[in-house]
Amino acid sequence: MSSEQGHSICPKCQARFTTRSLYEHAHGAHLGTVCHFPGHNIILQVEDDQQMVKELEIANKDCGGGLVGGKYRCRWPGCEPHEYSTLHNLNRHLRTKQKRADSDATNTKMDHDANPNNLPRYFKQDNPELARAWTAVCCEKTLRWGKYDCVLQVTESMRPFPWPSIQQVLIPILLDIMRRANSSHNEEVRRFRDLSANEFNPQDTANWTEYFNLADQSYMYLLNDYHTFTSIDDFLLFWANSRDYIQQLELILDKLKPATS
Q1: Among 12, 60, 121, 160, which is least packed, fewest CB within 10 Å?
Q2: What residue ranges in the chain does DSSP mark as E strands?
Q3: Phi, psi of 36 (to 5 degrees)
Q4: Which pLDDT does position 127 carry in this prediction?
Q5: pLDDT at 106
Q6: Dist CA 93 CA 85 (whole Å)
Q7: Chain centroid, CA 2 distance in Å
Q8: pTM of the prediction?
Q9: Which of 56, 102, 83 is nearest to 74 (CA)?
C-alpha cells in the first residue's frame, strides 16, 4: 500500500481512498466474475461490481428476498435471516457474502491444484521431483491462506479490548505469522522455478520476473512499522492489502503452470 497526503492506494485497481474507505473497499469490492449466489450461475465476461450487485439482487429476489413488508430481506441459502432498513445496507451484506464466497472458491481451486492427480501429466510421468516441488508450492499456498484467515478471526475477536494492548502484544505476533507464511511459500516457489528451468518456454522469463518483483513489494509492505496503526481497522486494512498482493501473485503463478497435456 502506498499513501499520499493521508490517502491509500488499492494494490488491485490503483484507486485512491482514505484509510477507512479503503478498508471498506477491500471488503466489498472486486467481487469477481462468477456470481456465487447458490442456484444463480451467472458468469460476467469482465469483473464489474455494479453488474454483479444487480445479479445478486435478482438472485436474492428470486429466492423470496428483497423488499418485503417494508424491510429488505436477505435470502442467501444457509445465511441466517437478515432484514435491513435500506436497499443499500442489504446490498452491502450481499457484497460481503459474494466476496467471501469468491475467496472460498479460490481456496477450493488451490486445494484442487494441490492434488497430485491434477498435476500436468509430464510432471507425474517424466519428472517426479518437479511434481513434488509443485505439490509443495500448492500446499504452502493453502497453508498461507489458512494462516491469513486465522489472523483475521483472531483480530476481529479482539475488538472489545483496548487498542494499545493489542498493538503492543498481539499485532507483532500476527505480523510474524503473515511474514513467515509468505516466506515459506516463496521459498517453495523459488525451488520450483529452479527445478523447472528446462520445462518452460523462454517467454515465461517475463512472468517469473514479474512474480518476484511483486513478491519483493509484498515483502517490503509486510515490513511496515506496526506502530503507525491507530486501530484494529488500520491493521485489517493492512491485512486486506497484503491479501490482495497474494491474489495478484497467484494469478501470475497460474500462468507458469503448464497446461495438462
Answers
A1: 160
A2: 3-4, 7-9, 16-18, 66-68, 71-74, 82-84
A3: -100, 10
A4: 67
A5: 63
A6: 12
A7: 19
A8: 0.54
A9: 83
Distance in angstroms (rounded) separating the CA atoms of residues 189 and 211: 10
The distance from CA 43 to its chain's CA centroid, rounded to whole angstroms, is: 19
Given the DSSP bridges, would you call strands 66-68 and 16-18 parallel, antiparallel or unpaired? unpaired
Distance CA(190)–CA(180), nearest Å, equals: 15
CA distance linking residue 84 with residue 95, whole number of Å: 14
Q: What is the pLDDT of residues 92-123, one digit of tens each?
A: 889 888 888 877 776 555 555 555 555 444 44
- How many angstroms separate the CA atoms of 68 and 64, rounded? 8
Contact 240, 11 (CB under 8 A): no
pLDDT tens digits along 2-23: 444 445 677 677 777 775 666 6
Q: Tell me phi and psi for residue 4, to 5 degrees.
A: -150, 120
- Closest alpha carbon to 160 in 232, 240, 236: 232
Report how far residue 92's alpha carbon sits from residue 97's, in angstroms, rounded to the nearest whole number.
9
Q: In this structure, how many other beta carbons lie within 10 angstroms of the beta carbon of residue 127?
A: 17
Helix (H, G, I), strand (E, B) or coil at 32: coil
Instruction: Give me the amino acid identity at 256.
Output: L
* Residue 129: Cβ-neighbour burial (10 angstroms; 0-12, 13-18, 19+): exposed
